Structure formats: C-alpha cells, structure tokens
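Duplicate of #3305? Posting structure anyway:
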C-alpha cells in the first residue's frame, strides 16, 4: 500500500511506487467525498493501469506532531490517506487471521467493499466495517442491512 502522490489533478500524475501494478495506490478525498485536487491519478506510467486503486480521507486530517503530548495539527496529502487504508487492512487481518499475508484476497476484499462515489477516479472509498464483516462469518452478515448493503 502506497500513497499515489500529490501532483494532481492531471491524468498520468500517479507517482512511484504507488503507480506500480503490484502496488495498491491510495489517493485522497475530502470531507465531502470529493477527490482532492492535489491527489495524483493514473493512468500509471508503468503499465497504463488505473490509479489510485482506492481513495481515503486525506484533506485536513488531524495528526499528532512532535511538539509534545498535546500537540496536533492538520495535514493534507495522500500520505495522510494511505494510513487510513492500511488501517482497514489491519482491521481485516485482525478479524480474519487466515487472510494475513494473502495479498490477492485482501486486494479483492478492498475492491469489492469500497464505495464508489460520483467523484471517484479509482475503486472508491474504503468501508472498513463492511470489509471486516465480510471476513467474520455468517453471523456477522446480520449487520449488513445496518450498513446499507
């Protein structure tokens, strides 16, 4: 999982290694689900593939800073979005230990559970709860209607 870069909005701006075919590139969107203007996008210069693969919150994300225990600031960028997507993978692998290290199944789950938006230029935005529920067995599927699935 790699940040797609902050050279958008033009096509062909996805940066390496996020534009590699084997990489899962992450773009950024804002609080209104609009792809951030700075968020890089494909086609990949490596193979022409669609990038980013997924977009996550990456505009005005609150983060801790090195200023002390109570020091926070807002940052924007695909480097703020990528940890959100990585967190979804951590949640999924925690809920389904049999998937740990199964990159193909993890990519498929992220792709299948992402929510497309009218502004999406990729696979969409991650839905962590849905991804975890899909890995948690038959009883977990009872929660799907509450998620609008």
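Output from current build:
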């Amino acid at each position: 999982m790699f940040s797609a870069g902050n050279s958008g909005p033009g096509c062909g701006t996805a940066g390496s290694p996020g534009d590699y075919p084997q990489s899962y590139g992450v773009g950024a969107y804002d609080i209104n689900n609009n792809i951030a203007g700075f968020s890089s996008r494909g086609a990949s210069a490596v193979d022409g593939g669609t990038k980013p693969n997924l977009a996550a919150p990456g505009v005005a994300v609150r983060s801790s800073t090195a200023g002390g225990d109570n020091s926070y600031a807002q940052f924007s960028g695909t480097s703020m979005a990528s940890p959100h997507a990585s967190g979804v993978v951590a949640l999924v692998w925690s809920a389904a230990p049999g998937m740990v290290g199964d990159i193909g199944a993890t990519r498929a789950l992220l792709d299948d559970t992402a929510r497309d938006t009218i502004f999406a230029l990729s696979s969409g935005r991650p839905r962590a709860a849905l991804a975890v529920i899909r890995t948690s067995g038959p009883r977990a599927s009872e929660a799907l209607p509450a998620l609008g699935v």
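Confirmed duplicate; merging threads. Residues 78-95 form the longest helix (18 residues). The chain has one domain: 2-147.
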